[in-house]
């Protein structure tokens, strides 16, 4: 058989996988993953930048808040008397503020950023504090010396002994020389202080006079020969000051005297009940002496009324009302002040009117109380409300016009009721109730719940007329008609009689 030719490979077998080889090379960046790398880097850089800005924002907020407190701290530090006190106070506070806000940082970067930036303003803060506190120190020291000098001048002037101006001047100059030595004032300033000393002494002298008698000090300054170092605006300002002071002194003196006289009257009338039979003894009268001849005479005359049984218990409501009105207007300020009422030609005081059938002892006490309360604005307003209320109450108390005119007890009843209700009013005020609550008839605290007991009755008219006729010896009085009521009788006779001209 024919042989089939065989082929023997001369190449050793390989483990490589069969593939097509090529000389073309591909860049990694041309792959999908490679294409994403730049974007990833950009995102990373953006995040880092964002975080950096965020840290700065947070740090900036801490810096702003801290600076606000440091500014306040700086202003407080500037108030200190010396630079050392000011700087020490600031440094202590500075550390507390910085530590406070540094601890609020969320990371180390913010802490470092905060600390670096917050410290940048500290030198300017300190310099400002030093500048201001140095000025404070100079001012304080000069002020201390000025006060020392003023005290020396005042002590010399206030002394009852004559003082040596040259000795005083030497002591004062030594004080100011100390300021020169410390570099706080110049030699020129020292000379100004020396030249000013005589003026300071004269001002102290005239002020001493003014404290006791401002009117006298004012009069002295009106004469140019007095206190010659006080000139121009300074002299005019002192005159204005003393004029105002004189007014206050007079008002104070008057007020003190008024209070003294009112208290004296209260004391006298408080003792009147025990003395109304025989009056006050001479030793007792001596304790009432004021040194004021007019006032002392009024007390003596009052006692003479009592001794001679001339002190009347009668009262006149209308007269008392007129006096109260003058008290309210401050025309009358004390019980010894003379005044005129309508139709009078001779002025008399409350004390002089006591016991003259218009003002009795109870009236004097009441009017004295009104005087005392009138000096207090709150009490005055309270009494004004009461008096207005009582004025509106009078028509009820009067009832029939003829009754109030002819009833000799009307005045007494009206005055007593006013005083009684006023006492209830004051008691209610003391207990904490408001005026309106006490003066309103709908209130359970109303002061006049029993007012009906004090209102006049028509049934009283007849007896009043009969008594009036008897007391005045009226024998030819118009007779009362049979069956005629008292009111009808009064209405009838009023047509022929002018009530205004009749005598009660």
Poorly predicted ranges (pLDDT <50, ≥5 residues)? 468-477, 496-504
Mean pLDDT: 79
Structural class: mainly alpha
Count of extended strands: 0
Separation of the first and last Cα atoms: 193 Å
Q: What is the H/E string?
A: HHHHHHHHHHHHHHHHHHH
Strand content: under 5%
Rounded radius of gyration (Å): 51 Å
Helix amount: 55-70%
Number of helices: 19
Major β-sheet profile: none
Classify the oligomer.
single chain
Shape: flat
Topology record:
Blueprint: H1 32-77, H2 83-102, H3 108-118, H4 122-158, H5 165-181, H6 187-212, H7 214-221, H8 232-275, H9 282-286, H10 293-307, H11 317-328, H12 350-353, H13 361-374, H14 377-398, H15 401-406, H16 410-430, H17 435-439, H18 461-471, H19 486-494
Helix pairs in contact: 1-2, 1-3, 1-4, 2-4, 4-5, 4-6, 5-6, 6-7, 7-8, 8-13, 11-13, 14-16
Task: Explain this structure.
With 504 residues, the protein is mainly alpha-helical. Helix content is 66%, strand content 0%. It contains 19 helices and no strands. The protein has helices at 32-77, 83-102, 108-118, 122-158, 165-181, 187-212, 214-221, 232-275, 282-286, 293-307, 317-328, 350-353, 361-374, 377-398, 401-406, 410-430, 435-439, 461-471, 486-494. The N and C termini lie far apart (193 Å).
């Amino acid at each position: 058989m024919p042989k089939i030719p065989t082929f023997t490979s001369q190449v050793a077998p390989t483990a490589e996988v069969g593939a097509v080889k090529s000389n073309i090379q591909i860049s990694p960046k041309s792959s999908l993953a490679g294409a994403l790398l730049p974007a990833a880097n950009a995102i990373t850089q953006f995040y880092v930048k964002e975080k950096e800005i965020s840290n700065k924002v947070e740090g900036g907020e801490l810096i702003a808040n801290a600076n606000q407190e440091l500014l306040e701290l700086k202003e407080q530090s500037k108030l200190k008397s010396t630079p050392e006190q000011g700087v020490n106070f600031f440094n202590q506070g500075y550390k507390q503020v910085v530590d406070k806000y540094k601890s609020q940082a969320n990371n180390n970067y913010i802490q470092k950023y905060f600390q670096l930036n917050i410290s940048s303003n500290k030198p300017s803060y300190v310099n400002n504090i030093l500048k201001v506190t140095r000025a404070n120190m100079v001012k304080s020291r000069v002020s201390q010396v000025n006060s020392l000098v003023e005290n020396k001048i005042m002590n010399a002037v206030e002394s009852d002994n004559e003082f040596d101006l040259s000795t005083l001047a030497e002591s004062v100059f030594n004080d100011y020389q100390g300021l020169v030595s410390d570099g706080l004032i110049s030699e020129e300033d020292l000379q100004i202080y020396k030249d000013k000393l005589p003026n300071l002494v004269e001002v102290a002298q005239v002020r001493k006079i003014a404290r006791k008698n401002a009117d006298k000090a004012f009069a002295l300054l009106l004469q140019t020969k007095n206190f010659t170092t006080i000139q121009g605006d300074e002299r005019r300002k002192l005159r204005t000051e003393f004029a105002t002071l004189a007014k206050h002194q007079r008002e104070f003196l008057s007020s003190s005297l008024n209070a003294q006289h009112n208290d004296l009257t209260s004391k006298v009338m408080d003792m009147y009940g025990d003395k109304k039979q025989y009056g006050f003894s001479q030793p007792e009268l001596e304790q009432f002496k004021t040194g004021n001849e007019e006032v002392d005479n009024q007390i003596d005359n009052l006692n003479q009324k009592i001794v001679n049984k001339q002190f009347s218990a009668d009262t006149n409501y209308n007269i008392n009302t007129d006096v109260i009105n003058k008290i309210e207007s401050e025309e009358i300020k004390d019980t010894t002040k003379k005044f005129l009422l309508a139709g009078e030609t001779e002025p008399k005081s409350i004390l002089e009117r006591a016991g003259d059938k218009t003002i009795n002892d109870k009236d004097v006490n009441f009017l004295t109380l009104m005087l005392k309360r009138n000096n207090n604005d709150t009490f005055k307003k309270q009494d004004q409300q009461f008096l207005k209320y009582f004025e509106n109450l009078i028509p009820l108390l009067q009832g029939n016009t003829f009754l109030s005119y002819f009833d000799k007890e009307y005045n007494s009843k009206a005055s007593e009721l006013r005083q009684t209700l006023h006492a209830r009013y004051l008691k209610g005020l003391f207990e904490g109730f408001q005026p309106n609550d006490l003066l309103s008839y709908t209130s359970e605290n109303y002061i006049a719940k029993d007012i009906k007991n004090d209102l006049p009755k028509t049934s009283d008219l007849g007896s009043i007329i009969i008594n009036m006729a008897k007391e005045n010896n009226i024998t030819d009085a118009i007779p009362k008609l049979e069956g005629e009521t008292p009111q009808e009788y009064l209405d009838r006779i009023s047509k022929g009689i002018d009530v205004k001209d009749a005598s009660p």
